[in-house]
Amino acid sequence: MLAWKPVFNQSGSTEFVFRVFTTVPELQFLLFLLFLLLYLMILCGNTAVICVVCTHSALCTPMYFFLSNLSFVEICYTTVVVPLMLSNILGAQKPIPLAGCGAQMFFLTLGGTDYFLLAIMAYDRYVAICHPLHYTLTMTCQLCVQMLGGAVGLALLLSLQLTALIFTLPFCGHRWEINHFLCDVPPILRLACADICVHEAVLYVVSIPVLTVPFLLICVSYVFITCAILRIRSAEGRHRAFSTCFSHLTVVLLQYGYCALVYLRPQSSSSVDEDRQFALVYTFITPLLNPLIYTLRNKDVKGALKKLISTKGTSES
Description:
The protein has helices spanning 25-55, 62-90, 98-109, 113-130, 135-138, 141-168, 185-189, 197-230, 235-263, 272-296, 299-316; strands at 15-18, 96-97, 175-178. By secondary structure, the chain is mainly α.
């Protein structure tokens, strides 16, 4: 039978340390500079998207409203992970208490808001392409705020359930080394000194509404979108309609490709080194590419960004 005794009933306090990437000082310094540069680029890119959407009336549409919130979630996610990660690269292994590890896991899993936002953005594209005459009547400001609130509320509920796994797992020692750079669910499960079959089952069950349900909604939306695009007679019209969906589809593939590899694999077939590599991609590459994908493929965003830069340059001069 599984031991469900909370870890707080154990003598002493449980704390974790993250395994260092390397012990070579030169490599530590290079990794620090690389990750710091990527983090600053993530902050600048996503902040620029938020500023452009908020300051230009031409971008006050549902699609850009959800895009700015997606950028905000990316900033929060990386900020929860990267500063602590950078401090551990150059310095000694700094322990993180169980409560701190649980708090980090809570905010990391709260990043599941991304997937609900991507599903909402797919619905927005469905209404815009399949029912263009009813778009303004359907995608009202009130509905957008309600859908955003629902996405955050669902992610909050599921995040609490996943974080509760930490506080019900028994740990036999007082200090554990995590072969990772963040407190994610899979590496923490490996450190428990009890049968974790039920916990793994809970992880899969919770992952279904976060990953599968939004993905199915996205697929259904794009089935209707594809049918509507194919009915467009002119090639130019089909290309214009598809180009409005290309950026969103690219981000969907990035987000779901990572999570399918990490969370939907059996733990017996996963490698801790692979998990760290996938997590590095999700922590740095995905938040960095998202604003680039939307700006490089979108004339409206590029035009608004140029106006924002020129306005700042004029004011400073």
